[in-house]
Amino acid sequence: MPNNIFTTEREGQLHFFKNFGIKFEENDVLIANTDGVYNGNIFEFKLSINNTQQVLFQAIKYLSRLRITGSPVPKNILLVSLNQTKVYVFDSGDYFDEIHQIYYGGASKNNDGFTIKKQPKEFNYSNMVDADKILKFLKENYFTKIKIDEDCIVGWAEKFYRENPTAKKGDFLDDKDGGEIRKPIKFKDYILPFKEKTNIKFKYLMDKLNDNLIKKELGAFFTPPAYAKKAVELVREAIKLVPKGNDYIILDRCAGTGNLQAELSDEELEHTIVSTYEYYEYKVLLERFNGRVRHIIPPTDDNVEFSAGFVANADALSEDFVNNEIIKQYIDNPKCTVILFENPPYSDASGDTIETGKSRNVKKNSFIATEFKNNFKSKMKGMVPSKELANLFIWSGFKYYLRQSMDSYILFSPVKYFKNIGLVNKTFELGFAFNRKFFHASP
Prior knowledge:
Largest sheet: 5 strands, mixed
CATH architecture of the largest domain: 3-Layer(aba) Sandwich
Strand order of the largest sheet: 1-2-3-4-5
Order of helices and strands: HEEHEEHEHHHHHHEHEHEEEHHEHHEH
Strand content: 5-15%
Shape: elongated
Helix content: 25-40%
Low-confidence stretches: 213-220, 348-362
């Protein structure tokens, strides 16, 4: 190899790739702002490496980012000192704990004080024998298996659905028969089996763990704790309105994993009824609040009418749910005040599936959608408000649940749903304006 002296890392990097036959453009080598990932190898190039510890720490930060984004973590870490034609090879498995930490700021900053655990293998690739050894490393396709946690599960879920377009949430997350995170098949070379029995660890991320079609159909977004705390202030104002001698219920028909309810006191939970339509969210809801709330709909896992990842008897837009005996006993009781407390889904129910082009979402033909179309006229010509799930929840809330002057609705909803179509003609008592800062919704 000629004794090149490079003036920029980019120049030396491209020469290194060409010298070792790495077609970086064809093989997507330059990913995630790294200096390159090729087979089971990650590169970190420097014109000259004077402090191996600092450069190694920089590479480990990149490996941490790969893990978080759902990218396999290469086994080999190659630190390349370009002008000395040296390569230092580390095993990323020796830095398992460090890779599972979160790092903020630029990867090249604040790298002092890092300790090397095991000395690397050193090669000078201007030497023919050492160059041949480097080639052997470059052919290796081994990875350090990472553990699944809250920091990385969304990235791995997105990778799973991207590579398996027909997969459903249960294929990835199921805690009964395994699912990919507990019994890895597609990712068996990349992840360690998730050992915890339930999914409660991911309670704030369940909306992001849905497959893309379910995300589109449900339109569900978790409620950030900061906003849930403010909303509970409104619940307590509503409780003050409960007439003396009355019982009261706090009803959430679309509770998800219960992020709104997490901010309620034990006494308030004793008045609370929750339900959710997505099965894996229901299981987390059950684990978090069973025995703490007045009712969960349905009460137990054995009562679930399971249907393709959904709890059919928890469908708030069905006629059966409107007539649910557990809830109706309170709605029919004039001595019970009803407080609806909800962050309803936002989803165009006319959405088509990617696979067939035919609508798989039956919400637009639900009992509530039919009643809504037959009983409500939009103020805006040409608009079909029954396609929007939030409209159906809001309209049905006033139609079937709020029946007395002291009943209340604490609602998360864009103002446009009230104004544009004249959906609500009620007194607005108190509220807060939230932006999308903490939501999982796309900007």
